[in-house]
Amino acid sequence: MTDLAAPRRRLARPPAHLADLTVDERRAAVTELGMPAFRAEQISRAYFTRLADPVGIVDAMTDVPVADRAALAAALAPEVLSEVRHLTCDDGWTVKSLWRAHDGNFVESVVMRYPNRATVCVSSQVGCGMACPFCATGQGGLTRNMSAAEIVEQVVAAARLLRSGAAGEPMRLSNVVFMGMGEPLANYRPFMTALRALLAPSPSGLGLSARGITVSSVGLVPAIRRFLGEKIPVTLAVSLHAPDDELRDSLVPVNLRFPISEVMDVIGEYASTTGRRVSIEYALIRDVNDQLDRAHLLGRLLRGTRTHVNLIPLDPTPGSKWDASSPEQQQRFVDTVASYRVPVTVRDTRGREIDGACGQLAAAARSSSPADSGDSSSDS
Ligand code: SF4
Description:
The protein is of the alpha/beta class. It is built from 13 helices and 12 strands. The protein has a 10-stranded mixed β-sheet with strand order 1-2-3-4-7-8-9-10-11-12, sandwiched between helices.
């Protein structure tokens, strides 16, 4: 782990890493080093299959001549994120990590263990440009897009942590949710490169199942349609947060460009094309969107569609005017929506005792770091 106060290095882009490259590009990069192309598979195996970290990857390349290992690791597997700290709660079933990127920016990921599966929630951007007023990340705006390798490294690190037994009984990572900081579809190409690396079988990638991956979007209709064209049957989650345009315009400002009717159209296309139920994310906010007339509106909006409502009890950021609904009102809301035969679940509130809401840990790190520069360089 590193020191929060360590000086920030300022590079325009994150260091190049094999996870930023396609299989062919990895082979070309290795050839440029004067090595046989199959070294690309060997270093990929060390990273994706043996889950080697930047320090251990030289030793992990047991099938590569010793003389080639350091140059290969330096060119294709440099450190892209360094862990500043990790915090555990829920009796060790939840581990939240704070990462520092090459330019001193902070992002977060969270590993959640369950009896029969393990999930990592990853960030896809430093900050977020969608400006949802109740969200800690949205308040800071977008600093920059993350590289594919920065996204992938959060997943590899989670798999490494779970396999090592440092977070309880050793187990395999089964699920990835793109619900951390940022809007993944607004960082389209790096997100897609990362997703392909997660899905590619060993040694090219982590070999995860598309069914275990959830991609959350605020409702960028053209980007969802473009993603649908990729024909990768992951679960889509759409952050709706309000059933009517008047309220959604203020809670999710992108609604001014893509109103609910257009969002519902693309949700229908996604569900019918993939055969997958789309998850409707709804952060329940006291006296803002938790009224029963809005529950009826939501029920009517979703009745007969292939959707599932995931209610998220709001985790208020310190000093925020937004608050969570009472448990009683939450239950009334659930019952009302369910009366329209729309499946509803309430998201568990893992990690809340450790600045759990998306962006809170990174925001705290930013404000406590004397090296904070407000650097807003972008690689997009
Ligand atoms: S709720 Fe999601 S889309 Fe909205 S600002 Fe926060 S991270 Fe961005």
